[in-house]
Amino acid sequence: MLEFAAARFTVPKHLRVMVATDAKPDGVAVMKPDSSALEVLGLTKRFDRLAVDSLDLTIHAGEFYALVGPNGAGKTTTLRMVAGLLRPDDGGVSIFGIDALKNPVAAKQVMAWVSDEPMIYDKLTPLEYLEFVAGLWGIAPSVSKPVAEELLSSLGLEPHRHERCEGFSKGMRQKVALAGALVHDPRLIILDEPLTGLDAVSARHVKGLLNERVQAGCTIIMTTHILEVAERMADRIGVIAAGRLVAEGTLTKLRQQNGHADTSLEDLFIALVTLQEAA
Ligand SMILES: Nc1ncnc2c1ncn2[C@@H]1O[C@H](COP(=O)(O)OP(=O)(O)OP(=O)(O)O)[C@@H](O)[C@H]1O
């Protein structure tokens, strides 16, 4: 566990929301704190056409969730709205019970967002960059430095920690951006295509780090076109097509729904997406 995990941001009580759960037999709705990590309800975004179409999504705390779908299905748009980078036209986003549209700062404190085209400061070394990001979160260098060292080491960047990022390859930059996103010990990690463009060794480093985070209790939602990764790493997989969730569940459940116990995720994916396109 990271050293400053104990100082992890907690959601102020006044920002927490209560959700109505199943009604009791006497008809009185029971209210309890929302235990899901991410709750998306009726999320909608239109550009020149509908990109995300009244999407509902629930990610449980501690879950590793993979969002897959064809190009242009609305995966990135969905995650950008969840991360507070894009205003939805309609719908709501709740992160650990925080209304992310009403309280974006509180929501951002408990999450990390890593884009598929990450931006880092080229003139800084990875260690300086991580110290800079930690500073933005108000974490003292004495606390953030060992965390940064540990992150860089798990991502195989230790030998390069004092080199300026300007000479780094795309994969190395991706890993620096990932380390930067994790430096404040977020509880929800949102990743857009985190493994694309990484060589096998780097991909293994990233997968190892993400698995470690889930073991430590974090929740991860990621998009990927590498179906084998979704198949191997995710607890549940959501298939999105034309801005809608067309299937969701464990791989076993998705297979059962399709009536083929031994089908690969790739075959399931193609069948589901073809069905959606024909509809
Ligand atoms: N800023 C934007 N302006 C206009 N249209 C956009 C914008 N961002 C996304 N779109 C459109 O919204 C739709 C969904 O795009 P999005 O990037 O969310 O898909 P995706 O599932 O992430 O695709 P990919 O797998 O190719 O990354 C596409 O039709 C895309 O062209």
Compact summary:
Helices cover 35% and strands 26% of the residues. The chain has 279 residues and is an alpha/beta fold.
Notable traits:
279 residues; 12 strands; 6-stranded mixed sheet; 9 helices; Rossmann fold; alpha/beta; 26% strand; disordered N terminus; globular; binds adenosine-5'-triphosphate; 4-stranded antiparallel sheet
CATH superfamily of the domain at 36-119 and 187-278: P-loop containing nucleotide triphosphate hydrolases
What is the β-strand count? 12
Cross-sheet strand order for the largest sheet: 8-9-10-5-11-12
Structural class: alpha/beta
Write the layout of secondary structure elements.
Elements: E1 18-23, E2 29-33, E3 36-46, E4 50-60, E5 64-68, H1 75-82, E6 90-95, E7 98-99, H2 104-109, E8 111-114, H3 126-136, H4 141-154, H5 170-182, E9 188-192, H6 200-215, E10 219-223, H7 227-233, E11 236-241, E12 244-249, H8 251-258, H9 265-278
Parallel strand pairs: 5-10, 5-11, 8-9, 9-10
Antiparallel strand pairs: 1-2, 3-4, 3-6, 6-7, 11-12
This protein binds adenosine-5'-triphosphate (ATP).
